[in-house]
Automatic annotation (TrEMBL):
Pfam families recorded: Branch
Keywords: Glycoprotein, Glycosyltransferase, Membrane, Transferase
Keyword Transferase attached: yes
Subcellular location: Membrane
GO molecular function: glucuronosyltransferase activity
Protein name: Uncharacterized protein
InterPro entries: GLCAT14A/B/C (IPR044610), Glyco_trans_14 (IPR003406)
Keyword Transmembrane helix: no
Top-level taxon of the source organism: Eukaryota
Species, as recorded: Protea cynaroides
Amino acid sequence: MRKNVNLHPVRAFSDRRWVLPFFASLLVSVTLFFAAVLGRFSSPYAGDPPSFDFISYARMEDSSEYFVESDLNSSLEPPGDSRMEPPRIAYLISGTKGDAQRMRRTLQAVYHPRNQYILHLDFEAPPRERIELATTIKSDKTFREVENVRVMAKSNLVTYKGPTMIATTLQAVAILLKENADWDWFINLSASDYPLVTQDDLLHVFYNLSRDLNFIEHTEIVGWKLNHRVRPIIIDPGLYLLKKFDVFRTSQRRSLPTSFTLFTGSAWIMLTRSFLEFCILGLDNLPRTLLMYFTNFLSSPESYFHTVICNTQQFRTTAVNHDLHYIAWDTPPKQHPRFLTVKDFNDTVRSGAMFARKFAKDDPVLDKIDQELLGRTEGRFAPGAWCIGSSDGGADPCSLRGDESVFKPGPGAERLQELLQKLLSEDLYKQRCSSQSVEPTNQTVN
């Protein structure tokens, strides 16, 4: 029994082996604590007072500076009047099966070394036609040297009434932004579009304009269009099939949105880089929300950018209500505009617009535009001040390039300037993104 009683004091003494590690840990902790305190309140420079990084709660009333959006928003604001150098235009020229030759002609008519160009031949075109288009571009000496023309290798199936046209446009813009191409405005054209002014005319006139103006025809969707376009839910087969079919409607209908106002207008646009960066790179969720909304919206190319810009405070006042196209409609108007012919030439010129549509393939009116408005001969670029080669013996003056920042404007610049002065007048300025805007007719501006 004695043995058993004496075991307890011995075990209690032996359990005190934890004391030494404990005091060692305590000593390290105290040392680190004092080191931290001394480092916190001592300045690396003699005589500097201690610094306390406390946030004043009084400043929290204006707390925007504490959020990442404040800095990013300032970087996305449209630039002011930048005239340090002439502008640059980025073009998307789109076509479908059988349009390769028309696309090349339009490209030659709008070409300028300052600009950027993307060509998209949709999925309906056979691979052979797409390869021929890319080969023609690659074999051109000017395109090869300047390197400002690209052919999209991966084609998309495009349905005009569905969102696939928007997707192709955004893809082209994303390519231009990814490659850090230098441009101020973006213009989308189809193979049935054709210019009415030279690029020297265009660049000269826009040199004197603020770089934050977006040319996009728009009007608020009201009346019968609400039931015809907004409430139906459509499906675009181009999103999941390899063959083009027309969009079809579902049996369901949706209610009108309450968090944004819907706008519509022309699908042909001239938009600023800053606005398109907002649509693709911006932190604001509105462009992505609307992109999902318009996935099942009838004729979404005529509403997506219009609704984004008119529901964004920083851009809504930059929207000029015109698409800079001349387009003629039947009376009463049908679903599509009518083809322009030689009979429409005078009205087309008087409109002052930069482009016109629709033209049939190789229509004689295109030759008339080349000869009388662009000074272009078949198979060549529309000449400008950058073309400094000799034309002796029928040589191409554009085979030798000069200063791309020098322009030689002609009568087209005067017509375009007159149109823009009217569009930027005070009365029309007040109607930008307004519910009281008069719905454009896309006819001649008198």
